[in-house]
Every structure is written in C-alpha cells, then in structure tokens.
Amino acid sequence: MGSERAEMRKRQMQVHQEAAASVLQARHRMGNTPTNASNACCFCWCCCCSCSCLTVRGEDETIQRSTFEPRTEGTTNNCDESPKPTLEDANSWAVSFERVMKSAAGRSCFRQFLRTEFSEENMMFWLACEELKKETNKIVVEEKVRQIYEDFISILSPKEVSLDSRVREVINKNMLEPTSQTFDDAQQQIYTLMQRDSYPRFINSSMYADLLKSLEEEEEEEEVPPPEP
Questions:
Q1: Percentages helix, strand, coil for the chain, rounded to the nearest 5?
Q2: At 211, is the secondary structure helix, strand, or coil?
Q3: Rounded distance, CA 82 to CA 198, Å?
Q4: Does the predicted model carry a pTM greater than 0.90?
Q5: pLDDT tens-digit profile of 65-79?
Q6: Is residue 171 within 8 Å of residue 153, measured between CB atoms?
Q7: CB atoms within 10 A of CB 32
Q8: Residues 94 and 103 sit within 8 Å (Cβ to Cβ)
Q9: Measuring CA to CA, how many Å separate 204 from each of 52, 200, 210?
C-alpha cells in the first residue's frame, strides 16, 4: 500500500511538472514569459518547488493574482446573511441541485454550508471555472487558467479539489494550449461530487431548515393586517 501511494504521488508530481512546463511554453509564445522561465527545474507558478525564486516575484504578478482571484458570494455561515431568496425560491432548491446552482442566493447559501463541511473549495473552483468561460481575451484566459491551476489543481495547494487521475491527465493535455474550456471535465466532476455528496446533506441540514422557517415567518407577518387604531 505504501509503495502504491508513493508511486501515485510521483505520478501526480510528474503531471504537475509537465503542465507547468507547457504553460511556460504557452506564455513564451504569447510574449509573456516569466523571468524565471529559463530555470528548467523550477515551476514556481504552481508551487512545485521551494527554490529561492519563489521570494522574488514582481509586483505585477501580485497585482495579477488579486485581479484574478475567484469572486465570492457571501462570507458567513448563516443563510440569512446570503442574498435574500423568496420562500418559493428557497423551496425550489429541494427539487434539484440544478435549482440551487441557478440561484445566486442558492449558490451562496450552499457555499456557506460547504464551509461548515470544510469543502468550500469545490464551489470556489466551480465559480472560478464559470468566470473563466466568460473571458475572451487570450492573455487573460492564460493567466486565469494558471491561477485556477495553482489554486485548485496543484497537489500542494490547501484548496486542492478532489479529481481522479483521468481528469488530471486531461487537464495536463489541455494546459498545452490553455483555453476557457481547459477545466471543463474537472468542473463537471466537481459539480457531480457536490450533487451526489453534499447536496443531500444540505437539504436535510438545520441551516436550510432554519432558512425556510425564517422565510415562512416573514411571509406570515406580511399577511397579517396591521391593527386598527
């Protein structure tokens, strides 16, 4: 068992290094080669090594990182703090996972639930892929692909999502020519994971039940006529 794990880890590291090399080649073709690209043993953008050049990234890269950080939808663990859904909207979430993901309030509330299960990175990755699909500028697409890889695919990232070896190999091939569809297979796999694993627990959670109760009470209060003077 130990040898199998070591071999898998070795294979994953090789995949990441190949992907890093392909991105560096792509950036060179686009005239956006990083200053450390000539160092063949270092793939700093995906944190695959701990060499000294990790400490000398330029300010422009720091700005780029903040620019392409996935957008968030709520930062608390209470659905009441999410974008306010109607009772009808919230009730529809129990019909299907698709209803949750099509609703801004649904995504926000579900994300807050994932946070309680320490799997918020799944929604963060899915949202980042959605943002990537909207981009048409090749330079921006390349940078967003690099950032998503570093944040959610790299085995050294604290926000690494769970993907099987087949999908990781697909990503590795796609990184040769980064496009807005680079992570399509991975996004679908994470969507399916959330649908099968986390969604049923969300629907049966106290968080969802409390939200429905709160919305029902608000609706009842609105229906009660004000007392006569």
A1: 65, 0, 35
A2: helix
A3: 19
A4: no
A5: 433 444 444 444 467
A6: yes
A7: 13
A8: no
A9: 49, 6, 11
